[in-house]
Amino acid sequence: MIESIDKDTQNTPEETVSNGDFYRIGRLLASTLSLTTRLDRVVEQAMELLEADRGSIMLLDEDAQELVVKASRGLSSSREFRVPVGQGIAGWVAERGESLVLQDVVSDRRFTGTDESIKSALAVPLRVEGKVIGVLNISNAARKRRFDHHDLEHLSAFADMAAVAIENARLYEALSKDQEQVNKELRMASRIQHSIISTHVPCASMRMVSRLMPASAVGGDFFSIIPLDRDSQFCFYCSPGVQDRCQKLRTQFCPNKFGLMIGDVANKGMPAALIMSVLTTILYEVGRHHISPRTILNEANAAFRRFFNESQYGFATLFYAFYDNNDNTLTYAKAGHEPPLLLRGKSGEYEYLEGEGFPVGLMEDGGYQEKTIELEREDRILLYTDGLTGALNVRGEILGRKRLIEVVKSLAKADIEAFLDALADEIMLFSGDAPQPDDIAVMVMELEDLYDLTMTVGTDVRQIRYVINSVLETLQGFAGLKDPITLRLCLEELLHNAMEHGNRCDVSKKVYITVKAEPRRATIRVRDEGEGFDIGCMLEPGGGEKEVLSERGRGLLIVRHYADELRFNREGNEATLVFTADG
Hints:
With 583 residues, the protein is α+β, with helices and mostly antiparallel strands. It has helices at residues 19-30, 35-49, 88-96, 149-195, 232-235, 240-249, 270-287, 293-308, 386-389, 400-410, 416-431, 464-474, 484-502, 536-539, 545-548, 551-562; strands at 2-3, 54-61, 66-73, 82-84, 100-102, 118-128, 131-141, 206-213, 221-229, 253-265, 316-324, 329-335, 341-343, 350-352, 370-374, 380-384, 440-447, 453-458, 510-518, 521-528, 565-568, 574-580. Helix 1 runs antiparallel to helix 2 and helix 13 packs antiparallel against helix 16 (551-562).
């Protein structure tokens, strides 16, 4: 619609815009997917195209039925200025979907602005598939040339191209926000998944390291340590001396027996992760009160069939074992899972822990077979899911059991943490650039020397004195115990750190203390359930001054000064304190 055209003021040629101009503008708009940048470029290019000195883009807020200024040049009004649909010049255009060319803007009855220097203006709707999504406005001051119907045609053609570019950017921005929300939820799900996995071994003679490598943000592979609740029915199997010692420890869980599991829910991703979470919880609750792996797998099988019989992820493989430190036996049952690999520390021989049984959820009667083996010092067990042996390289070859045995035997002399690191590196080297097809879960267990004292206490500073007295009593035969005050100082510092900095005073978290007393050497370990910290920043040369001078940093420097040795595990949540006797 062209209104009030003053022919005396027309001074432009009929063809002021070429196809080359539109091609150049189109490439410029397509060079970014940022909505804000595209809006700014649309205004700038529209003004340049028609030699205007002012311009704006108003997008439609459908819920409020208002036009909102999203980009402008040469105007005093800021972004987010709103105009109801049907009001003002832009509101009129948006309501009717018609274009306007005005020769005298201020005198127009629809003009609601305050800037009377505006003389000529163009307002065109921005349409996508026939639907108005906004309005593009440009204008000139009184001394500039006035717009005519040729300018309106050019701006309308430009607006059609710009509307598509704007809508694409809006869709991309909405998709990006949705994806970010999905990623945020996946990160949260991953943290929840890791939080329900317990990796602390309550028995000090058994050491364990683990790693979970899902193919996506979350997965269906899982593992966990199941502590056994203190109960008289289980204490019955221990000698009176062991029972008496356990009572003095005041620990919530049995320090001599525990369960462990590793499993794989069919398929991967969020559905498998949800089933994994439920199954882990079931196994944890059942395992706390039973010592028979066959009984536990039967319970898990019944629960899986009851809850997930309608699911396409209708089964899961499991390996469940129960370790008894009194006789170093491992009793286990397998539900269609990959057999763990047992590597004998003294002879170097290996064997697979085979067993009969269907995956849980597959059959009403799983037919689980229970077996028992006896472990010796330095024996190492590798538990894993089929994502490990099923790892693929770029040539389509799988890792397989044969290569796995070769890798394990080559790393047999490595420390357990170095062993797991090297194993993970070997998998990555084998796979190369090939994508990871399945989740991978790995646990490595090793039977160490027995300790003379094992304690589990809550995060309560009032228990520190009791712990220190118990440690000193255990070290009565240690020849280097000439200055108990020094040992008290060091141990108190480590316990305070574990409770206050490690567990962050969370009363639901525990602190674990183990003591090995030899005639001329005393080894004390203190472990918390926190996330750990970078010990290198405090104890290594060149560590950050802020960390070293912090309360924790000063305390650890004092401990290192008095102890013969102070070392930390990789995570930074376990400290090992060593004292040796002189001479």
